[in-house]
């Protein structure tokens, strides 16, 4: 049968779609790029905020109509929405629901659904997904590699521990087998993924850690750059910072969500550090890796957040000078401690205003930081083409650079001279092609 995937949410969901698509194509199904070409539509869903949940519900509604008109045969729901809503999704018109730790069983679940069974499968058999599992990669030169599933942190606002379960690291030898396979297939860049990727190995209790994984993965000649996402502040070890500083293949890029600059709010969020510890971490990274790119996430309008708390966040952003900032307004999530015990009391307009002011501040910081790039020559790996037909890629600090050329290919290393900056991407002129 022909299957169309629509993926919402984070990179882990993207990687899960690649895995499910790989398994289904091994079982003789065809993965198609457009819903009009499909017999089966699978929505790989996200529930991190109310809006994310509304998005796939509205898509589900559309697909239910398509199914009624006979254009598609089956609708499946995968991802975090499955774990949160389960049976409810069948009532909303889905034919099957598969949990985020059950993706290895997608072929069996689909087969049952095709026989007319309504099925909700939420078992945790994530250990059946390993380096031997087929994956249909969306990029030729870059690959996502999930190395740790779940989260143990229980930040009071966050739904993820409820949908993705507890932390479970993949054995290091198995991850390396996957890296080896990718290297043989011509992949140059890999990104190790986890909700707390720097907690990798803790649960294995055998000394496995992210720093040694990065070192060992770098031994494969073909692999040129190694990234990792997302880091929990207190799980970043000195050894990890040292490895990133010294390993030429380790991208000089840390994504470390801070969430708030107010100690009071951080405590209510159950984040286990304070603003000074966070700023010291940023300092430490910059002292060892002067050009490190540090990015972050912030939630504004958390319950009881006052103007003073918010000013503390603004102040932290001014001090940390992030390369990139993902901002979100607080969204109560069913079942979390914050939604049960804290009143969502910051008015909507106030939240939006706080978000916009932070956006402005970050834009200004971005412009200042990007100015330093002007006139410099940087090496990037080509990632693809923009809608306007220009090429783009990123340097080892995760900076996106756009340029025009007639003759480069995806995965190629090129040197660019930066001749224009914005608060977002940079623009450059091709200087030299360094080959694939
Ligand atoms: N594991 C990562 C983040 C995972 S969720 C970490 O610890 O930081 C991605 C981002 O979504 C979070 O960093 C947070 O900023 C945002 N987020 C999570 N729950 C949210 C909520 N209830 N309301 C608004 N934003 C939320
Ligand atoms: Fe959510 Fe906190 Fe876990 Fe990140 S660390 S996934 S924000 S509970
Ligand atoms: Fe969303 Fe689940 Fe990722 S809630 S952000 S898809 S872990």
If you had to describe this structure to a student in words, what would you say it looks like?
The strands form five sheets. The protein has a six-stranded parallel sheet, with helices on both faces. The mean pLDDT is 97. Helices cover 35% and strands 23% of the residues. It contains 14 helices and 19 strands. The chain is globular and about 60 Å long. The protein folds into three domains: 2-125, Rossmann fold (3-Layer(aba) Sandwich), CATH 3.40.50; 128-371, pyruvate-formate lyase- activating enzyme; 374-435, Beta Barrel (OB fold (Dihydrolipoamide Acetyltransferase, E2P)). The protein has helices spanning 11-26, 50-68, 80-85, 87-91, 106-114, 160-164, 172-184, 210-217, 238-246, 263-268, 275-288, 307-320, 337-341, 348-371, and strands at 2-7, 30-32, 40-45, 74-79, 96-98, 119-121, 142-146, 148-149, 168-169, 189-193, 225-229, 253-255, 293-300, 324-329, 377-385, 391-394, 400-403, 413-421, 426-435. The relative contact order is 0.08. With 436 residues, it is of the alpha/beta class. S-adenosyl-L-homocysteine (SAH) is lined by residues 48-49, 157-158, 160, 195-196, 230, 232, 257, 259, 297, 299, 328, 330-331, 333. Iron/sulfur cluster binds at residues 151, 153-155, 158, 160-161, 195-196, 232.
